[in-house]
Amino acid sequence: MDYINAFWVGGLICALVQILLDRTKLMPGRIMVLLVCTGAVLSAFRIYDPFAEYAGAGATVPLIGFGHLLYQGVNDAVAECGVLGLFMGGLKASATGISAALIFGYLASLVFKPKMKE
Predict the structure, then answer these.
(1) ∠ CA 29-62-21 to the nearest 5 degrees?
(2) 33 found inside a domain
């Protein structure tokens, strides 16, 4: 049942994003920011954890999960370091994922011939 919940929740999130792309004038970058902010706001209101427990990877893989990760990192760093945690918490929590994206992106550019869009 976990797989089914992850599939339909992740699919619903993707379908809603596709509707936003097709029916509004919002640019993809703004929709991505909207997803990250939604994850952070859901975390702030303590709604994200039960949602992620129910949906599993369907909730953690999309950009909503990245917003949650940033919020949790900032929240933990503020509790540990005070106001300075506002500046370092999100970066510390997401450093592994961001580094992996950069490294794998670079490796993919070595394997495939990158082209500029015209």
Answers:
(1) 40
(2) yes
